[in-house]
Fold this protein.
Amino acid sequence: MPIKSYLAHPITGMKNDLIVSLTQYEQCEVIPAENNEVVILITDTQDETEEHILKEKIEAIPSLKLLAMVSGFNTTKN
């Protein structure tokens, strides 16, 4: 199961809109930065296919300016 962390940069003035949009997905944990216009996003999905679909949905959010992956971990055994 892939667990990934991202920095989500909102369009200027749209941080709250981005937070609301991201919290709609149950696979997302959203942590707003207190001193910057950035949101920490943790995703936890069942497999890479679900992660890919979720990432496409996140990247389509109108208030998102940039999504940068910070770290990724996969607990699936091959």
Observations:
- The first strand starts at residue 2 and ends at 10.
- Residues 20 and 76 are 30 Å apart (CA to CA).
- The chain is about 25% helix and 40% strand.
